[in-house]
Amino acid sequence: MRGEFKSIVGAEWQGPGAPRSRRATRASQLLWALVFPLKRHQIAPTVLGVFLIALAMGIGTAAYNTGSNILFLTLALLLACLLLSGLLSWFNFRGICWRFRRLGSWRVGHDTLVTLDVQNRKPWLSTYGLWFDFVTHPFGASSADEAKPVTSVRALLAASGQRITRGRLFQRDRLSGGGNAIFQWGVQPQQRGVALVAVSAVGSLYPFGFLKKSLGAFPSEHVLVWPAQIAYEWVGVAGGRVGSAGRRTVRAGAGDDLLALRKYTPGDSHRLIHWKASARLGQLMLRQFSAEKQLGYVLKLEPFTSRWSHPQQFERLCSFAATLAEDLFALGHLRGVALANFPYQEIRQLNELERFLDQLALLKLSADSVTTEALLGVPENIITFAPAGTLGVNASLNGQIIATA
Fold it and tell me: 261 pairs with which residues across the strands?
């Protein structure tokens, strides 16, 4: 399901200096763009600029009434300052482009860094004093939002504003010609699904602060937001056969026999770091042990409206299933998952687990249907989920509750 949306992976360059927008411009086109800028490209006077314009009008009136050459020279100097401010501001944005750096999926309730790469493609001129306005919000409405009644337009706008997160980052240092800069913005998603993140506007007060120039209307990028990790209580195995201990397999797990070494990835346990190999190779390496042969568990989710009538409880189901799948995978006890009418999926590698989390991020309530074919070939140890009260969720194995959230 990851391919259904364009995630922030190799995003395209945006801005005036983007490669696709750099083409030969005639003088007439340049003049027309200065007089009639593009959509959401604005040049507005600041408070200081308004004062300067008012001062210029006053000096101009006095100059025409008195015929003083000194006043005319002063008027010309003030107008030249305004004109020069606009031209330098225009040159300041020329050749500037940016794009989002490669990011993985987000997680509800976890802090995430949005990294923006900025380039100045002008060969000689530097760029000063930019700021970048970021915005992110969910794409569409979740099942919990769809169930809320809309009482008024004001309430609808207030609810929409709560889901929108905005931020602004300033350029502190000079960005020389041909140089690069990195901007990082912290965001914490609050809703499972697909989120949109974009640079809503880029502005600057360069050079004198008389005029504020801003650019806008840039395309947004999509990123998947995984369900939140929640706390749950594990009751027990409840008669599930975990298999015979002592036999080893070549599959990675939590056994005692060293299977291989692999690169460290964020989230791995520091106790598994092989320090000698890391010092020899110049990067962190982890020990990967063979797993004890065991039957493992299969997670089965049925997102049917007849069973999950409360949208908040359904969201808790998604979070519970995601957390339980990750915990079982870390212990080497997760065999596979069966989601609604999708075919049975074996979980052997981390990318397969991430694909399941992507599916949970996009999971929605659906009408009842038969799902027996999805579990063909799966003999036993199937964990199912059922509502517990109005907000809780129980996980059962062979008819007995083994975990509750």
Answer: 287
Name the 3-class secondary structure at 375.
Answer: helix
Per residue in 339-363, pLDDT (tens digit) is 876 778 888 888 899 999 999 999 9
CATH of 2-226, one of 2.60.40.10, 3.40.50.300, 3.50.7.10, 1.10.1040.10: 2.60.40.10
361: its two tokens: 């991020």
Q: In whole angstroms, how far apart are CA 148 and each of 142, 143, 244, 306, 314?
A: 10, 9, 50, 19, 15
Nearest to 346 by CA among 335, 355, 359: 335
CA distance 368 to 268: 39
* 381 torsion bin: left (phi>0), alpha (psi -120 to 50), beta (else): left
Taking phi first (over 0 means left), then psi (-120 to 50 degrees means alpha), and beta for anything else, what does residue 140 get?
A: left
pLDDT digits (tens, 9 = 90+) for 224-282: 999 999 999 988 654 444 433 334 344 445 545 555 677 777 767 677 787 887 888 78
For the sheet with 96-100, list strands across it: 96-100, 112-120, 180-187
Return the H-helix or E-strand segment holding 354. helix 350-362
- CA atoms of 23 and 25, how far apart (whole Å): 6
Beta strands in 83-164 (DSSP E): 96-100, 106-107, 112-120, 130-138
